[in-house]
Backbone:
């Protein structure tokens, strides 16, 4: 039974792809039906778990370890969440891709493959299975970001893939260390094994590596760089999934490590709390400055991940008294998935009508559109934590967890240290206020302001989405107030059902969500939000302008370009490392080393290396070209060089550099000491040219993905 939700969508992906080559309309309906069937199965599994049934599955033989799955309350809940999100976005996708889009067959293929991989992550019983499906999910979702194939989309996809692959490889190292130290990767056995492990240093090394990998997908600082760039260029239904569910696969891993290996570790909790606060505040600040609708929501996702990580961190700090923080983190995950589903689908409705995202271009579009107005308002109220909406519940629980820990420290005589956590509380409240500020900005822009020239056209758009899209958007939006009106009935029941995965303690008494104390915290954040909008965003982030004899205020992009951490820090750092490596190679010209080591080795390996490089180039070129022609839907009039031949040429350049350097130093019999630098210069130039060319092709993604799986397989087979 557990195999069905994982592998059925993958099989359906191939069937829908083949069907789409004959009938696009039937393909769209088949995709929606596949998502609906997957959701029904997941819902049936959830009911079974609620009734006490136990579900496990072992698939032996894979890499010598096999794949293992299990179902508990949390896994069943998030399987249903994934099913709901894919069904809703599939209903919107039919409308969204109806005009001005190509490569829809490719999109739907990877859309369903990603559904199966994501469910594989959430249903996994051990971290090895989690890793396998995590990497598959990263690769299949890469095509969403690159879908439009514009320069911006390809660059964002390059960043997304690089972060995913680097994070995955670091995570793999952590898993190697963890299995060596504990002898198991089963999630439910980690706590007992970690308690018995005498070498806590190895556990920390493994934990940090695993946190790096999962944090990269979650969008945790400083690995958040893909979020603000990937979401604006990806199709809106894909953005809803990237933000609402794929980031939660990273959070799933963070919880698996934190709630088991470091369940009561104050050091781990403090480290995670620092990263969470930076992520929370940094994402909110980026969203305040953003003037792009989807980028604002993407930066918001980064900030909201910080809120969730804060709850996980406080759960570690509180230990056995983690009831409020752990339940808050769980419910925040659920709520954020729901909010971003609603908000990104609403943004998709805007984009599919206007094909614009800049706030100055989309202002006023929502006027006179009550259904869109209602849906956006539900998502905004939930995200802001307005009382009677579900987001208020999770924000309140995490806030109370911070307050509780500060009070415990004060009772233990550590009043000075408790002040530090009071500061963390105010960062939490202020970040919540910034959430209110940027959502007020988006709401007023879309539904209250008027466009100076296009408003009559916007007002005339009465059929701005199909009935199917309207059902998906409205049903998703209705869940926000339904879950929030009676939280002791709805949200507490969900926390009781799924809290075991986080090892959440039972609360000592029922939480009075609408008490004066809890309402005060929400009011503080909302007041901060209104003040930031009125005193900062409105006067300082907009400028007056006169259009058609009308005075308006235009949203200005005032975020400094030099503060792009990817362009100003990460890419230069990688380039510096590469140049340093080249310099180190050039400096290694000691005659004895050259004569007795480098020259013989190079002479022996040159022919073999050149042959292998050529063969690899031809193979990857053929694979990329075949994929482009059959799956990715590259049109026939495109030059083949843009898909695969660049890789072949780049490998050839690298091989030619080796050969040329060898001829200068060895084969021509010239003195080694005069030409050794030229040899390594040839090697290095060829390698750099290969990398620079290969990273702009689809085959680069294939190579990286294959390398990751090969490393895993080789390790498992040699054990």
Residues:
């Amino acid at each position: 039974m557990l195999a069905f939700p994982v592998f059925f969508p993958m099989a359906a992906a191939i069937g829908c792809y083949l069907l789409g080559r004959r009938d696009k309309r039937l393909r769209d309906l088949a995709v929606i039906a596949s998502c609906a069937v997957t959701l029904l199965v997941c819902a049936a599994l959830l009911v079974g778990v609620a009734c006490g049934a136990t579900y496990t599955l072992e698939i032996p033989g894979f890499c010598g370890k096999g794949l293992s799955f299990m179902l508990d309350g949390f896994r069943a809940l998030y399987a249903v969440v994934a099913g709901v999100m894919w069904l809703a976005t599939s209903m919107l996708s039919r409308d969204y891709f109806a005009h001005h889009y190509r490569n829809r067959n490719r999109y739907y293929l990877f859309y369903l493959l990603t559904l199966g991989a994501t469910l594989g992550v959430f249903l996994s019983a051990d971290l090895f299975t989690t890793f396998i499906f995590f990497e598959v999910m990263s690769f299949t979702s890469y095509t969403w970001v690159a879908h439009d194939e514009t320069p911006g989309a390809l660059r964002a996809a390059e960043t997304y893939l690089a972060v995913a692959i680097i994070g995955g490889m670091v995570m793999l190292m952590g898993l190697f260390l963890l299995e060596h130290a504990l002898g198991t990767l089963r999630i439910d056995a980690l706590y007992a094994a970690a308690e018995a492990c005498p070498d806590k240093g190895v556990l920390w090394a493994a934990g940090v590596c695993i946190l790096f990998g999962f944090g990269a997908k979650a969008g945790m600082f400083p690995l958040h760089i893909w979020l603000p760039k990937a979401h604006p260029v990806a199709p809106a239904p894909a953005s809803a999934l990237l933000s609402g569910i794929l980031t939660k696969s990273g959070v799933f891993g963070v919880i698996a490590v934190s709630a088991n290996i470091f369940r009561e570790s104050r050091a781990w909790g403090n480290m995670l709390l620092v990263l969470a606060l930076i992520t929370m505040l940094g994402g909110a600040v980026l969203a305040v400055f953003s003037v792009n609708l989807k980028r604002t929501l993407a930066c918001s996702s980064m900030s909201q991940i910080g809120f969730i990580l804060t709850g996980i961190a406080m759960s570690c700090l509180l230990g056995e008294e983690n009831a409020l923080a752990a339940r808050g983190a769980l419910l925040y995950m659920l709520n954020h998935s729901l909010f971003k589903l609603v908000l990104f689908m609403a943004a998709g409705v805007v984009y599919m009508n206007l094909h614009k995202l800049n706030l100055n271009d989309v202002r006023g579009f929502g006027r006179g559109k009550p259904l869109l107005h209602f849906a956006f308002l539900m998502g905004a109220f939930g995200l802001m934590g307005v009382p009677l909406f579900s987001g208020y519940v999770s924000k309140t629980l995490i806030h109370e967890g911070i307050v509780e820990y500060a009070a415990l420290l004060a009772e233990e005589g550590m009043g000075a240290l408790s002040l530090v956590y009071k500061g963390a509380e105010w960062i939490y409240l202020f970040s919540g206020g910034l959430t209110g500020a940027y959502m007020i900005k988006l709401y007023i822009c879309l539904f209250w302001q008027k466009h100076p020239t296009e408003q009559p056209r916007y007002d005339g758009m009465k059929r701005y989405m199909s009935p199917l899209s309207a059902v998906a958007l409205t049903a998703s939006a209705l869940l926000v107030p339904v879950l929030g009106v009676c939280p002791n009935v709805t949200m507490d029941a969900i926390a009781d059902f799924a809290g075991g995965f986080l090892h959440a303690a039972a609360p000592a008494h029922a939480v009075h969500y609408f008490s004066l104390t809890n309402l005060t915290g929400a009011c503080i954040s909302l007041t901060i939000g209104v003040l930031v909008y009125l005193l900062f965003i409105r006067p300082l982030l907009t400028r007056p302008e006169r259009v058609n004899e009308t005075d308006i205020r235009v949203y200005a992009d005032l975020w400094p370009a030099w503060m792009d951490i990817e362009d100003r820090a990460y890419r230069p750092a990688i380039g510096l490392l590469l140049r340093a490596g080249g310099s180190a190679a050039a400096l290694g010209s000691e005659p004895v080393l050259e004569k007795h080591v480098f020259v013989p080795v190079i002479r022996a390996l040159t022919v073999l290396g050149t042959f292998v490089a050529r063969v690899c180039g031809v193979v990857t070129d053929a694979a990329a070209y075949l994929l482009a022609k059959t799956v990715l839907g590259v049109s026939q009039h495109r030059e083949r060089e843009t898909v695969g031949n660049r890789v072949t040429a780049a490998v050839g350049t690298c091989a030619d550099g080796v050969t040329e350097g060898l001829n200068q130093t060895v084969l021509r019999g010239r003195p080694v000491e005069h030409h050794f630098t030229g040899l390594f210069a040839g090697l290095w130039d060829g390698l750099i040219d290969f990398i620079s060319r290969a990273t702009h092709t689809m085959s680069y993604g294939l190579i990286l993905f294959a390398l990751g799986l090969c490393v895993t397989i080789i390790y498992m087979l040699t054990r």
Notes: Confidence is low (pLDDT under 50) at residues 584-590, 634-680, 690-706, 712-718. The first strand starts at residue 55 and ends at 59.
